[in-house]
Design goal:
Number of helices: 4
CATH class: Mainly Beta
Oligomer: single chain
Strand content: over 45%
Number of strands: 8
Structural class: alpha+beta
Radius of gyration: 16 Å
Largest sheet: 8 strands, antiparallel
Helix content: 25-40%
Shape: globular
Number of domains: 1
CATH topology: Immunoglobulin-like
Length: 168
């Protein structure tokens, strides 16, 4: 059971990181922003059930100012039913003009454990249909404050948008 919760958390973290990587709007600016800021890798996941979680990510921030993620959350839904929510549990600073490892404190809230286990089994079989994500991320850089949000994004769309493959 503990392993199942850890797998669900990893799924939510991947979705959360997808959101971080995809903060720019589609179009010409997206290519430019992708090179200025990107999540390079997810290095470590730590925590336990009923406790706070943390992921360590490597990020490249080639902008002229520190970026601060002031709030973020992601809902995972399966066939329209909420499965869980991942919430940022403290501000995260991404140092300017460098590639660095950053710890992201998180809280996992499982809304419906039965649906979560059902979803986990479905994902392990390679079936990603009916899985959608609603996310919002607030980022501050210098004097600019931006809120990025998107609703009803399929897991497959997120993977395509960020050039990641899903195992089927």
């Amino acid at each position: 059971m503990k392993r199942a919760f850890r797998d669900i958390l990893k799924l939510l973290i991947i979705i959360f990181v997808f959101g971080l990587v995809g903060c720019s709007k589609p179009g010409a600016n997206q290519t430019r922003h992708k090179h200025k800021f990107q999540v390079v890798s997810v290095d470590k996941v730590s925590g336990s059930i009923g406790d706070k979680w943390a992921i360590t990510i490597t990020v490249a921030n080639n902008t002229a100012s520190n970026m601060r993620i002031t709030s973020a959350s992601a809902y995972v839904k399966h066939n329209g039913r909420k499965v869980g929510r991942l919430v940022l549990d403290g501000e995260v600073v991404l140092p300017r003009r460098r590639c660095s490892q950053v710890e992201v404190p998180l809280r996992l809230i499982v809304s419906n454990p039965i649906v979560a286990f059902s979803l986990l089994n479905k994902l392990r079989k390679g079936d990603f249909s009916g899985v959608t994500v609603d996310y919002n991320i607030a980022i501050t850089a210098f004097a600019s404050h931006r809120l990025f949000e998107q609703e009803g994004v399929s897991l497959e769309q997120l993977a395509q948008q960020f050039n990641l493959g899903l195992k089927k």
